[in-house]
Amino acid sequence: MALPRLRAKVARNGDAPALVGLNVSVGLADTERVERFVLSEAVVGRHRWLLWLTFASLILYVTTVPLRPPEGAFSLRDAGLFNIPFVCASIMCLRRVRAEPRDRLAWGLFGVSMAIYAAANLLGTLVVGTGPDAPYPSIADAGWLVCYPLYYAGLVLLARSRAARSHLSVWFDGAVAGFGAAAIVVWILLGPALAEIEGRFSTVATNAAYPIADVLLIMVIVIAVGLLGWRPTMMWSLLAAGFAMFALSDGIFLHQEVLGSYQEGGLVDVGWLVGAVLLTLACLTREGRYEAPRQTGLLIIAVPAVFVMSSLALLTYGQGRSLPTIAVICAVASIVLALVRLGLTFREVQTLADTRRLARTDDLTGLANRRHFYERLNDSLRNRSPADPLAVVILDLDRFKEINDSLGHAAGDALLVGVGPRVEDVLRPGDLLARLGGDEFALFLEGAGQDEAHVVASRIVREIASPFVVGEMTLHVEASVGVAIWPDDGDEVDELVARADVAMFVAKSMRTGVELYDSERDRAHLDRFGVIEALREAIGSDQLVLHYQPKLHLATGRVVGAEALVRWEDPTRGLVPPDRFIPLAEQSGLMGALTAWVLRQALAQTVIWNAQGLAMGIAVNVSASSLRESGFPDLVADLLHETGVPPHVLTLEITEDTVMSDRERCLDVLHRLRSFGIRISVDDYGTGHSSLAYLKELPVDELKLDRSFISSMNDDTRLAAIVESTIGLAHSLGLPIVAEGVETPDVQDRLTIAGCDLIQGYLLTRPLPGADLVAWLRQNGCTVAAENAVGVRTSL
């Protein structure tokens, strides 16, 4: 017959039986993203003729088993009908090449292998023959054996594309099971036959090659199923079933050959055909993706454990008996790999414990982190009685950013590390301290009501107030603490933390150290948050406007500029006063964006005025946060270049307190601005501290006297004396001086006599939009002294 296998002489003829070849097409799946394959109607429809041809040949071959010809006789049934399923499988694999771009080479190798295998079958039938006198090994054996390297190469490619991220332990589990399964298969199916293999070296070598290939293929199937979490998808189920049929038929064939009972063209041959049909069905599946089930529970332990126990039982049974060498090697390999897997498990458990600890611990301070704090707080609140209160405390360090910016992050980190031990000294058994992030810490106090929580929080504030020694420096910091009580202030963890945070913000803004949550303050906090978000949107969508107030040069009677004031008309809140939203902009980090917007709009207005024949300058009041930014001078330079305004037209106004907040950094930024040709003015002069001590160090072009000295100077001789002496001081330093807040002619006359240079205030006009200011200038016959301009002030 045209049996697609080697033909071997039985021992009684002097030749040993040989095992059949085995085909494989197994892919290893990704343990995290497994490819699920399901039969697709569209795919089946395109290849329906191949499927019908495969099944028809199988059915026809099975029905003609009783009609098989005598052994050694040529048969069209064996030469053609038997090979059809293998040819169809080859065609399907090669067609799959186009449908699987990432596995193109793997499926191509499988298709070529199937084609070579079918050609070897046909060659064995037509040329070599199948009778007892047929040569063995033959050229057909070379064709069958050469398929195996192609199968394994395809398997490696599939493994690389699907199991590149598989965990090492998963591979070990699969290998343990694979070697264990191979040991059982060799012992049960191939053991008796392998013991009978004898004859010439070429015969023995060829006969041994096939069972070794079978064992390796079984191992690959088991390992692949293990990588799928012992839950094979449809494609893997079809592949595994097909190769299992090949292995089963090979084992039965070898066993019957040893006993001399094998009949060509019988039911054993049908097993190989069924395997080919199953491979064809595997090629007719289409890819879909789903999340692979996590390998948890007893399944991942039970399956490898069963094969380890079976290997141990096999070796125990083999004591004093003759076991196949291959079975012994596979059983020992399974046990050794299991021991290695056990060591890997110990390491994974230790790593998992370390990872869990790190996931719940703050890296810098070693305290509990946000996750740990929320977990413990949730556990503590679960099934808690309302009669047993609990306090949530939020602690934030005051002026920590200044320390971080001035002394560096190393000093800031050292300070944060030092906070933990001080707070923990105050805590009681059962309390927990955690670092939420930055300079914010959280605590919960078991069984603490308002009074006890306030006592503990006050002690924490006192502990933090003690000096910290960081390197060679001694740092003094303060803390603001907010407290919320369960269940009075909230039932949920997030609610309690949020309300403790509100209380902390109140303590920080009022500088009281400790505050308990109050619902009235919470509403104010929510309103504050809403204002900040609306301001953020207003800046981004140009909802703000600038109004301008003229400045008058007393000696010439000419307008030399105007003060610009920010106006915000919110659609829901109406007119929001600057003294409300500007501090919020500073606190929320919006001051940089607001300053940039005002600079751009004010410079653009000067361009419009210049086009109308009014060459007036502009000045912008700069906050402390802007002066601490090293990139601020570059921003100003870019805006000047963008609008084409000369640098000397712009005056930046600062306050004494602004410079004193970070003297060295602010002085560096001011000198860089001055080097560009930008003018610098000291605003609200006289209200700060250390004015005379640092005035000589500032790169100043102008002093602006605060309105608090001007409005009542005619009624208070001491205020008048201060104003006059300040004017004299400014002139002695060669600086012009501006008096703001002038509202009456008497005050103007008094300032003129005292030698003041410029005035501004409601005496001239209220702030006006840019176009209205031009109309006011022309209506009142005012002229602009561009050559003597000292700048236009933009007030935030």
Give the secondary structure arrangement, pairings included:
Layout: E1 35-39, H1 41-46, H2 48-63, H3 76-79, H4 84-99, H5 104-128, H6 139-162, H7 168-195, H8 201-227, H9 234-259, H10 267-283, E2 285-289, H11 299-317, H12 325-359, H13 370-381, E3 390-397, H14 400-407, H15 409-426, E4 432-437, E5 440-446, H16 450-465, E6 468-470, E7 473-475, E8 479-486, H17 493-510, E9 514-516, H18 519-540, E10 544-553, E11 558-570, E12 574-576, H19 578-587, H20 591-611, E13 618-621, H21 624-627, H22 632-643, E14 650-655, H23 656-661, H24 663-675, E15 679-685, H25 691-695, E16 702-705, H26 707-710, H27 717-732, E17 737-740, H28 745-754, E18 758-760, H29 770-779, E19 793-795
Parallel strand pairs: 8-9, 11-19, 13-14, 13-19, 14-15, 15-16, 16-17, 17-18
Antiparallel strand pairs: 1-2, 3-5, 3-8, 4-5, 6-7, 10-11, 10-18, 11-12
